[in-house]
């Protein structure tokens, strides 16, 4: 199994409008209730339950920009530029929460400044810094195969030929040359090498990574 065959190698994102900074404001919609971070965390406001397998990562919220609630964000794919999404989903203390987009403006082909509805101060924006940005999997159809990277496999289930279902991939550890899947295996972290020798195939439809792991690896 080669990642290149299934489009899992990253490539440079397309340059928008000749590389110039662009901006866009989402069309006006009926007023919505503000999505304040702590209200969601404590359950004071209700949101439809979103499951991890229903979304995929497209970037990261970096840091506040200015004092009006804007966030600097970076993208790992250009799907947002083509999908016309109305909201992002962020993982807030284990709860996947939709934050509706008020406006955004691109600063480069991989970065933008984003204003979310209900996030109106620097302090509120700072609480979102470092969080991964997700979109519903329905928007994945807007992605070219070449846009997929290993980080899009977070949330996929690892299923081994011999050991059965091992659990969901919670993160990709690419801090060293030996890239690893971090898997939640019955409540403990299991580290699985990302290797053509062990991965038989990846099924995007069922969000499953099929492996054939060597004996003893799961017990390490």
Outline the structure in words.
It is a single chain. This protein has 220 residues and is mainly beta. It contains three helices and 13 strands, in the order βαββαβββαβββββββ. It has a six-stranded antiparallel barrel with strand order 2-3-6-5-4-7. A six-stranded mixed sheet has the order 11-10-9-8-13-12, with no helix packed on it. A hairpin with a 2-residue loop joins strand 4 (87-92) and strand 5 (95-106). The longest helix is centred in the first third of the chain and has 5 residues, at 37-41. Residues 1-47 have low confidence and may be disordered.
Brief characterization of the structure:
The protein is mainly beta and 220 residues long. It has helices at 37-41, 79-83, 122-126; strands at 23-25, 55-65, 70-75, 87-92, 95-106, 111-116, 132-136, 157-160, 164-173, 180-185, 188-193, 199-203, 208-211.
Task: Summarize this structure as a short list of keywords or feature phrases.
six-stranded antiparallel barrel; six-stranded mixed β-sheet; 3 helices; 38% strand; mainly beta; 220 residues; 7% helix
